[in-house]
Amino acid sequence: MAKAPAEAKRRAAELRRQLEHHNYLYYVLDQPEISDAEYDRLFAELEQLEEEYPELRDPDSPTQRVGAQPLDSFRHVEHPLPMYSLANARNPEELHEWFDRAAKLLSGAGVDPAEAAFVTEPKIDGLAVSLVYENGRLARGATRGNGEVGEDVTTNLRTIGAIPLVMRLEPGEQPPPVVEVRGEVYLPLSDFERLNQERAAAGEPTFANPRNAAAGSIRQLDPRVAASRPLSIWCYQVGYTEGLELESHWQALEWLRGHGFRVNPGVRRHRDFEAVVEECRAWEERRAELDYDIDGAVVKIDSYRMQELLGVVGRDPRWAVAYKFAPSTEVTRLLEIGINVGRTGALNPYAVMEPVEVGGVTVTHATLHNEDDIHRKDIRVGDWVVVQRAGDVIPQVVGPVIQKRTGKEKVFHMPEKCPSCGAAVVRPEGEVVVRCPNRSCPAQIVESIKHFVSKDAMDIDGVGEKLVERLFALGLIENMADLYSLERDQLVGLELSSSVNEKGKRVPHRLQEKSVDNMLASLEASKQRSFPRVLFALGIRHVGAVNARLLAEHFRSIDALIEADEEEVAQVEGIGPVIAEAVREFFDEPHNQETVRRLRQAGLRFEVTEDEAAAPRPLAGKRFVLTGSLSSLTRSQAKERIEALGGKVSGSVGKGTDYVVAGEKPGSKLEKARELGKTVLSEEEFLEMIGGEDPGGAGG
To answer: Does residue 27 or residue 603 have the better pLDDT?
Structure first.
């Protein structure tokens, strides 16, 4: 085997340095400075060098993040310092009581509690882990376990890009011999939804919530499973150290930031306790805006000297407390399990429950995912069940309260026939979803039309879900193309619903002339929507807005896409075989071909024009956050306009944000942008940047 020449050694070392630098920019600072393709090129070059000269393989190389073999089991490891739990405060009064107790103890120890400073941080709902670095290199990673002993999950934690394998050091700086970093591994909410969609499409059981997904990923014996999931981490504490002297928790967080660890940007230091209370309230208000789950805020007394004086009672440190938010789970009775038929024929079970308030919202319906998930959780009709608002938005049934069963509860079975059209349902091999195979199923047609007119698709103003159902029931539309054949005389005066007045008389509610004119004008305007929007609006299974843009930009016309075979579609970057099969299946259906023909005849756009293809992408690499409402564009229009010009839109303000677009009644994102010194654009400035309104093109 040839020995690596000096030039190869130097190049491998330089590639490792560059890749770790770009990992840090991407995962920790959220400020990538090279494209994914360029990163992949550097990575491939390093892989090739290590393949040619195995002696160059370094265990801390970026190529080795997924290099370990599956384990038979996890070994137990003892934490160098206990990982304590936290006492809870559920309201401002209990928060004050916590500090009053701490102040009394500090006074008794001869310390003026007025000198105390505090640190507040979000309480991430993930999996707590301990990372031990020896001489600057990740030596071991473990779960919290019982607080004193955890499981060694080093191989899985090494697959997480946000965890540095080697800590960042200043030139000439020597790493501490030992430092333990504690953090919370989590799965972003946007990635959680995408992961569940992929698992459902592959016939695998879905995860109940992001925390279960993160914990399940880290406890996989095969590290390749963890590597395939987009896990991340927030580091929140320095534990045991050798050769590192720190005086406060805030100083420890700054040390972590400076050495390549991902610290939450929302962490704050306060000198006034009332500011602490207000910050906890603020976290509760903005939790729904975050792309990760939090179930509270953590308050810590900053000084390590004060922490040592306060000590620990039982397993709870007296110097810290968790301010818990209003519960996002409650218990109620499951009355029945209903079935919705989706636009792709999927039979989706949902729970009908006795009304219950969860996180401040009254809930009567919740998702149940699929039949396998219902049986796995052993959920039965008549059960008392735990209901959770996933991400504080989508209600779902977590599981039954077995102790409350009476024996009268009924096991659920998926119907053998479609509740909409009566066709015998099928369950394709390897899938968990039961489907109606009838392409003429009324429920599928109605849902596909609802999708077509929705904001993110054709954005047809005035055509809501109820109107679609009414038009279909009256036989005025039978598919999405029929919308463009509607005439004013058919619509004016059309009865939509009715109510009963005080005298008990039925009062019909009809479509008025102005509403009809606005609707028809919106239908006409929708003919100028871009090809990617139209392709997404067709409702092809697995083809979301991003995939529709990839396909449209690659094939440039609907004709080229229809003529492409499955292999050609699969080769488009970012598509793959599952989507390719769905695309091919969609366009092989004669009635879909007929729909495309009629939509084209109506004047919709089914190709990327030369001007669009040659259009500059001046926002390439720029990251935007939208807050508040815009008067000239919808949120989805603004997002697509940004993406069409090469930019990206994220849901939260961070160090990697370039611009925050502030409309009417902006939320806390505006305040965060100002704190971080980000450029804030008014609606007028934003429109000037993107070249004005574009309601009929990429933005419309």
So the answer is: 603
Least confident piece of the model among 473-487, 556-570, 677-691: 677-691
* 275: Cβ contacts below 8 Å, ≥ 6 apart: none
Structural domain 88-173+200-324, CATH architecture: 2-Layer Sandwich (3.30)
The per-residue b/e assignment along 675-693, b for 16 or more CB within 10 angstroms, e otherwise, is eeebebbebeebbebbeeb
- Counting Cβ atoms within 10 Å, is residue 651 exposed (0-12), middle (13-18) or buried (19+)? middle
Residue pair 175/135 in contact (Cβ under 8 Å)? The answer is yes
Locate CATH 1.10.150.20 in the chain: 442-528, 531-613
CA-based nearest residue to 106, from 259, 301, 281, 370 = 301
CATH architecture under which domain 617-689 falls: 3-Layer(aba) Sandwich (3.40)
Class of CATH domain 6-64:
mainly alpha
**Rounded Cα gap, residues 329 and 397, in angstroms:** 9
3-state DSSP call for residue 517?
Answer: helix
Give CA separation, 82 vs 77, 153, 306, in Å.
Answer: 12, 17, 18
Residue 369 has pLDDT above 70, yes or no: yes
| Range of 30-34, 64-68, 425-429 with top mean pLDDT | 425-429
- Write b or e for each residue in 22-32: b if 16 or more Cβ atoms lie within 10 A of its Cβ, otherwise e: bbbbbbbebeb
The 10 Å Cβ neighbour count of residue 384 is 18
CB 389 within 8 A of CB 366: no
Q: H helices of 474-604, where?
A: 488-491, 513-525, 531-537, 545-555, 558-563, 566-570, 577-588, 590-602
Tell me how far apart the alpha carbons of residues 214 and 361 are, in angstroms, rounded to a whole number.
27
Q: Which of 113, 126, 135 is nearest to 162 (CA)?
A: 126
Question: 277-309, pLDDT tens digit by residue?
Answer: 999 988 887 887 788 888 899 999 999 999 999
* 123 classed as catalytic: yes
Confidence of residue 700 (pLDDT cuts 50, 70, 90): very low
Which residue among 123, 324, 450, 669 is the active-site one? 123
**Domain 442-528, CATH class in plain words:** mainly alpha
- What does CATH list as the number for 329-411? 2.40.50.140
> Residues spanned by CATH 3.30.470.30 within the chain?
88-173+200-324
Residues 252-259: contacts with CB under 8 Å, at least 24 apart: 253/119, 256/181, 258/168, 259/164, 259/167, 259/168, 259/169
Top-level class of domain 531-613:
mainly alpha
Q: Where in the chain is the domain with CATH 3.40.50.10190?
A: 617-689
